[in-house]
User: Fold these one by one.
Assistant:
Number 1:
Amino acid sequence: MRKIDIAVIPGDGIGREVVPESLRILDLLSEIHGGFKFEKKLYPYSCDYYEEHGKMMPDDGFQQLSQHDAIFLGAIGDPKRVPDHIALWQTVIGLRREFQQVINLRPVKSLKGITSPLRGDKNFDFIVVRENSEGEYSQVGGTIHQDNDEIAIQTNVFTRKATEGVIDFAFQLANDRNHKLTSATKSNGLYHSMPFWNRVFTETEAKYEDIETELIHIDALSAFFVTKPESFDVIVASNLFGDILSDLGGAIMGSIGIAPSANINLNGKYPSMFEPVHGSAPDIYGKNIANPIGQLWTAKLMLEHFGYEEIGNLLLNTIEELLVDNVKTPDLGGNYGTTEFIDALFEKLKKQ
Ligand SMILES: NC(=O)c1ccc[n+]([C@@H]2O[C@H](COP(=O)([O-])OP(=O)(O)OC[C@H]3O[C@@H](n4cnc5c(N)ncnc54)[C@H](O)[C@@H]3O)[C@@H](O)[C@H]2O)c1
Ligand SMILES: O=C(O)C[C@@H](O)C(=O)O
Ligand SMILES: [K+]
Ligand SMILES: [Mn+2]
């Protein structure tokens, strides 16, 4: 029996609802499979922890987490209690950097059984590859002066190493998929970073044959997400562009609550981290109405990461069957609570 040792961080808000519920399903899946088991260690790092300790994690928090095979995270953030940049940089964003999770994979796919005005009758299946360690997300800069003279400076950082890394990864992925790669750019308005990004894209392209490519400005690309999502295969984007596109990806699928993501460490030195695209949703926390599919689909990505693609497919297929039977949480127009959805999924999986 293979033991996979994961760190579990439910975090804040609905993370505390969808993570424990998803663990019930993960345990059942490992039982059904019979060949592996998740050993789980729970970490309470959250805004509650901050209120008690003045920081989101203990000083050796990263060290503790680095010992695990993977991190399964819900969401961090409660801006009424802790400023978002503090809460996120001390946890998710810091972890992505420290653990060199340079790639963030965010699949976007029309699921059976979901209708939405944005989706219409379109079918699509693509993946956003988000640069995950630098770009527009940087701590370089500062604020000076007061009142009317106040200045805030935020410097973007685009290294050749990370830019080439993410673009090359996306080319390889397109090569394994349907041979089309779209790059999000904004080389009209951003004078230095995006012309550089485009140049690296064009240089990398020369290494690959038979990949259809397009460079599309982020504003137009956002519109195409809505009007022709079926035209995409792989999309490569900088940190901020990829962040924004992936919520839009959730919206065209029918709900931000179903979008999954995987923060991938490629060099094997640190664990990868699996968390849904959505945040802690303080507006719906405590009502048992959060959609757990984003967290579950994220669990599927984690299963694939450890080589259990088949059982991951079983999970997503069974979710689709439930959706077709109108077993849905309110964000998708249904009347199932989080727990009731998981109960229904549990029963259906047990019958397989
Ligand atoms: N990686 C992360 O941990 C992460 C990601 C995004 C936002 N955040 C943080 O979460 C907090 C809230 O951020 P936000 O409101 O911008 O984004 P959000 O994703 O938490 O919520 C946006 C909207 O989508 C809805 N929603 C989100 N997930 C849902 C689900 N599973 N089921 C049903 N509805 C769902 C919410 O109710 C809300 O109306 C902030 O503190 C933010 O910084 C953290
Ligand atoms: O900006 C971020 O990366 C945090 C959150 O919005 C996410 O998408 O994970
Ligand atoms: K999240
Ligand atoms: Mn986001």
Note: The CA atoms of residues 184 and 237 lie 5 Å apart.
Number 2:
Amino acid sequence: MSERIAELEAENALLKQRVIGLSKAEKVLRETEARYALAMQGANEGLWDWDPVSKELYLSARLLRTIGMGKDTFKTTSNEWLSWVHEEDREHYQQVLCHHLKGETEYFRCEYRVQNSSGGYVWVLAHGMALRNDQNIAYRMVGSIGDITEQKEYQDKLLHQATYDHLTGLPNRALALDRLSVAISRSRRNKTSVGLLFVDLDNFKKINDTLGHEVGDLHLKEISNRLGYCFREEDTIARLGGDEFLVILPDLDSPKQVEEVCERILATAMQPVTINGYEFSTSASIGVTIYPDDGYEPSGLLRNADAAMYQAKAQGKDTFCFFTPEMDQETVRKFTMESYLRQALSKDQLSLHYQSIVSASSGDVVGAEALLRWHCPEYGQVPPDQFIPLAEESGLIVTIGDWVLETACLQAAEWMATACVPFKIAVNVSYPQFRDGHIVSTVEKVLKKSGLPAQCLELELTERLLMEDERGCAEALKKLSAMGVQLSIDDFGTGFSALNYLQRFPVNTLKIDRSFVAELDCSKESPALISAIIQMAHALGIEVVGEGVETRQQVNFLTLQTCDYLQGYHFARPVPADQFQLQFSESCYLGAYI
Ligand SMILES: Nc1nc2c(ncn2[C@@H]2O[C@@H]3COP(=O)(O)O[C@H]4[C@@H](O)[C@H](n5cnc6c(=O)[nH]c(N)nc65)O[C@@H]4COP(=O)(O)O[C@H]3[C@H]2O)c(=O)[nH]1
């Protein structure tokens, strides 16, 4: 009996100790919670307290105010709370919660939208942490919620600015490529195709040039709006820049669907647009490529579509063209190169090299030919023979040519001022620069800006340009000549046999093509031909430059034939401006080349 009493007393003491322990723990918990609640009040956050077993959820008054429920503290269930979570965020919310309950994350952190009493949604950021028993099972979870709607809206705005085109409101290139990647992944799973269309408006530049950029912009906006009606909801139309658009058609079953879309785009682009009382219409050229038939990578597909678009242009515009593997690789390269060339000037990839022209009698450097160089990051150093024809075809030569003229004249004026000797700078010009007398006004401006005397500028023309007089170059050449600008004929002898243009145009110099000079040693005709050219030119009061002079024998022959000037690797290769300056000053101070 006494043993039993002692046992009971011991148990009683133990129980008392546990009660004391528990009430101490409860006190600590209450204090902790009070501190937490205080901290949260200060942090302007609402509190929640959840029992994962019974699903009871306690929401603090501040939390309810945060999400706009307009109620005081109240109890609910986690199921009801879930019904307030935006349906697009529900799965994510449940996943994050589940990971935390399983102990896979240290803290619970989730951004989601929750509905308020007026039916709208607020973005909230919820933090929380589960309390766990000895078996690591969560028996309670507490946390806070803060309203991040404003922050989210700001983020969305920034994201929108970074991914949408500001003029048309369409997705931009970055977003388009992202969507293309998503479409490709989905098609891979669904075993379907993706159509990629590169759309370029034909003759849009004309609208910009004749009616101004404002009208051009309005036109683009209108066309973008209209194009929007040509597609399904899941399709994407993006603006790549300028008048170029990209269309992504995901989940296609047959290429026939693409053809229908192309027809719709062509018809839409044709519809007349009226802006500021002007009515005009454009057309479009479309290049089409298909995933997976033509490629797997977004960047490769984009290149295909671009090349196919150029093919459509080459076929007369206002049409669409499917990419084919047989499509000439050179054509692809050419068209891709043109798109890079478009940016070459603004990206500072162009420069001028200068090649000495020496007097055949004294050997002094009397001038230089400015030769354009393009360093393209994608293709490396591109030879002028490759990119100049491209620039001419695309009309880019006009802007580039203006830059060449200005740079060369400013440079020549500087050298002349430093060396105090006469100097002539020769600049190549192409036919498109003559359109509408453009070259005359450019030369006037450039001479004024640089202070270079007109006589010190020589424009190198091709025979073709003079032969095609009907294009209206004659007038411009006469004006240039009247200003004092020198005119020379480049690559003389290679083009046309009719020489009557030499009398009709105010030509000052002939440059004998380097192929004749190269053949001097091995062909019987070449010496006779060169000799005849020099005599004929002199009879007409025209000076002669021998081009491509590489050997001492060539120098001797040309000098004997009274050729006036010599140019070629024998004297100097084309070099950057600073190196040419050294050659020039050496020639001025140390003596002649010959
Ligand atoms: N084998 C050999 N070649 C020599 C020798 N001496 C000079 N050359 C090369 O012959 C070309 C002379 O220029 P071009 O006949 O006007 O022929 C030029 C010109 O028609 C065109 N070009 C260059 N710059 C411009 C430019 O600013 N505007 C225009 N429209 N065309 C340009 O590109 C063409 C090629 O220019 P480049 O490649 O720089 O080639 C240059 C030059 O490097 C030599 O001794 N041997």
Note: The two ends are 136 Å apart (CA to CA).
Number 3:
Amino acid sequence: MNTINVVAAVIKHKDKIFATQRGYGEFKGGWEFPGGKVESGEEPEAALIREIQEELNTEIKVHDMIGTIEYDYPTFHLRMSCYWCSVVSGQLELLEHEAARWLGRDELYSVSWLPADWQVLGEIEGEM
Ligand SMILES: Nc1nc2c([nH]c(=O)n2[C@H]2C[C@H](O)[C@@H](COP(=O)(O)OP(=O)(O)OP(=O)(O)O)O2)c(=O)[nH]1
């Protein structure tokens, strides 16, 4: 099965994190951390900065890695590294997503996350 390498931004502000709802494709309607595929030869942190600029018109700073999810979807294997991030400049405009929410610790499980994402929520919850 082919593996896709994805990076995801867990953008934190005060005690909330930013979740987005996919606006298109196979997983439309599911909630995720914004990000996307790492291009060949690209450093993960640079890929994440690029993706957030493209999707949200916002410059971020990438902090520590939270963890790497490994998940088998029916047609591909996902390897997704998640990083704590903060906004440097920009307004988190939804250029590709359907909706977004700032979630507090007690609201973390209140959206329909993509299947792979559940793996990392415990880690995030523990560090919020
Ligand atoms: N960005 C992101 N993708 C996730 C998450 N959870 C999860 O299973 N995925 C999956 C969905 C997609 O199959 C894949 C990410 O691909 P993508 O479509 O966002 O990547 P991209 O922006 O480079 O996309 P494209 O140009 O190919 O449309 O990872 C998540 O929290 N964030």
Note: Strands lie at 3-13, 16-21, 31-32, 35-37, 59-72, 77-89, 99-103.
